[in-house]
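Subject: for your reference before the review

Hello V.,

The reviewers asked for a structural picture of the protein, and I figured it would be easier to keep everything in one thread rather than splitting it across files. Below is the amino acid sequence we used in the manuscript, unchanged from the supplementary table.
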Amino acid sequence: MWNEDPEKRRQYHKDYYEKHREEKLAYGRRYQKEHQKEISIRKRSYYQKCREAILARCHLYKIQHQEERRVYGHLYRENHQEEHLARNRQWWKKHREEQLTRNRQYIRQNPQKQAQHNARRKAHKLAVANTLTPKEIKRLFAIGQAVYPGEKLHLDHIVPLSRGGGTTYANMHAIPAGLNCSKQNALPEDIYKQCQL
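And here is what came back from the structure prediction:
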């Protein structure tokens, strides 16, 4: 019998769907319109029950389809640029104050992340490398504390950004705040020459 063979059963359902595709789609649309509230309640209750599994599945999907999603997002933005901008402007007008408050609060709570963001922006503007990771920043501060114990430290570029130096582990060091503020965009050899005069 065909129903005892799972492959034949699958094929039968597939053929049946292909024959009656339009009817089934029309019925589905009609059903969704008529039972909108029931469907939303059912979806909400399912999400609450299986929240962790759903989020894990979504996260896995994002990782596996990262490149496709990036390409799709780029194409979508290109094709819907005007409506996207209009929607953003409209949203910003409505929520401007609360968003600014939220941004200020986030900056106060995460000064290090804000500093990293500013450094990335600056590096992007000047078209220089920016590969410094949070782990490397911690390591640089640990070295700085060993060299200058008890000092307030700043993370500083050895070759300044304005002179083409990148925000990389090899081009960074933690030095006392006073020294960092006074050196401006001088190179180490310039400071060494000034000290010898």
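For the response letter, the relevant points are probably these. The mean pLDDT is 86. Residues 111-196 form one domain.

Happy to draft the paragraph if you're swamped.

O.
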